[in-house]
Amino acid sequence: MIIAERKPLDAILGMMTPYHKVLVVGCGTCASVCLAGGAREVAMLGSLVRMTRQTNDEPIEVAEATVHRQCDKEFLLPLAAEVEAADAVFSMGCGCGVQLLAETFPQRRVFPLLDTKFMGVTLEPGWWAERCRGCGECVLDRTGGICPITRCSKGLLNGPCGGYRNGKCEVDPTVDCGWLLIFDRLKELNELESLRAILGPKDWSHGAFGQPRRVVRDDVRTSAEEGHV
Amino acid sequence: MTLREALSSGRFVVTAEAQPPKGTAVDEALQQAERLRGRVAAFNVTDQQSSVMRLGSLALCHLLVERGLEPIYQVTCRDRNRIALQSDLLSAAALGIENVLCLTGDHVSLGDHPQAKPVFDLDAVTLLVAARELTQGHDLTGHELAGTPRFFLGAVVSPCAEPVEPQLFKMEKKVRAGAGFFQTQAVFEAERFAAFMETARGFGVPVIAGVILLKSAKMARFMNQNIPGIRVPDDLIKQMEGSKDKEGTSAEIAARLVRDLRGLAAGVHIMAMGWEHLIPRVLEFSGLPAPAEAA
Ligand code: SF4
Ligand code: SF4
């Protein structure tokens, strides 16, 4: 899922300063699961904002709505009336949600309330960790199911650098060396020999470094338009 | 005699370091190198070591070549993508630089511009592949070159890393990717290096062992706690602690190590960390006879 974190309250109040009636839109999917922008967080932030503005003698009306997910227009369209009634819209979805809201309702300013962090997993309640950088050409089959691009701080493809110490990476003693994890896993699987193959140079043109990417499935699409971004 | 010739002749090779300045004041680095003329085979010119922004390795290598001193051009994958790396390698060849040491590079977060975007488009293995392709007359994508460079390619390995097995795995890949010599992270225990060489020798490529001049017990403890792959044994720390003549003791320790490494390594790479003036003494104490032999 996509992991995000709410922006600090001061930053949020700053963005809201010019407005008197705002709509805060939560997202019931990733942002909700990572406890950043689901219905609960929307309600909590709503009260916080109302209270603070009241105390400052600058009352504000905060309407709240949480949709199933913000990255599909069908869930956003029913918000039309509430969007219309607000001076501005504040999204508690990831960056994709914020943008689709803005695309769907171009007449309203849409602001982000979350900082979108990464694609990751829940390790335990309250602890999320990055697992995929969306490189566009997965190599997990070669590396024992552990991503070298994400779990190695340098994204190395051919084994560890000389920077590990006590199993940890040179950049941070609380971060496991991804390559030692890969090495151990392949050893356990009795597949160490497969590491001898030289991987790369990787084709980064499939990664998040160039033009915006798209996936178009003609077997699923309904419109006949050229697939565009 | 070039580094390549020295290594293939089988003589025990000594290399040292030349650190580009933070700024344009290159005189000190050049004078230091000058003082070691004839005593070391080549100078490793670091590539923004520890991710601290400095004058480029290529420029200092060029200045050494101009003075008839032999550089080892260190190239890391940290700051340049494959286009820039290949281009710089061609530039190096055009400037008469032959020895290239291909490294991954430290992470940017360890240096003085931790906000920078790290590159790591290639890694040390694929950088070697790229450099070798250039020597075969074409670039990484197969496009032909007008004028083919000649390189003596090297790589690094950390023989005292724990675990060492992944290092050996990667070392073997580097050999297959074109590494013709290795230089190592600092070694303090010849026995550990000997154990590493039992496997590494099989790769058939000369290994130059890293030797750091200890400056104090404090520095040794700091390295033990912070520098991956370095282990200074307690007795050496005690020796430094009890010493009234730190430089003398440091040179003695290093000399003893060089002596012990003589039968095991193809040479030593001395990292003097500012005590370059001790290098001749270390070589003398170690019984490496004439500067002529080391030259
Ligand atoms: S290899 Fe690429 S797609 Fe696969 S997990 Fe890593 S970043 Fe994601
Ligand atoms: S220490 Fe391990 S995780 Fe960190 S950069 Fe080196 S190989 Fe990657």
Overview of the molecule:
The complex is a heterodimer of chains A (229) and B (295). Chain A is an alpha/beta fold and 229 residues long. Chain A has two domains: 117 residues, Response regulator (Rossmann fold); 68 residues, no CATH class. Chain A is built from eight helices and nine strands. In chain A, the strands form three sheets. Chain A has a four-stranded parallel β-sheet with strand order 3-2-4-5, with helices on both faces. In chain A, strands 1-6-7 form a three-stranded antiparallel β-sheet. In chain A, strand 4, helix 6 and strand 5 form a beta-alpha-beta unit. Chain A is globular, with a radius of gyration of 22 Å. Chain B is α/β, with parallel strands linked by helices and 295 residues long. Chain B has one domain: TIM Barrel (Alpha-Beta Barrel), CATH 3.20.20. Chain B contains twelve helices and eight strands. In chain B, strands 1-2-3-4-5-6-7-8 form an eight-stranded parallel beta barrel, surrounded by seven helices. The model of chain B has no long low-confidence stretch (mean pLDDT 96). Classes of the chains: A alpha/beta (229), B alpha/beta (295).
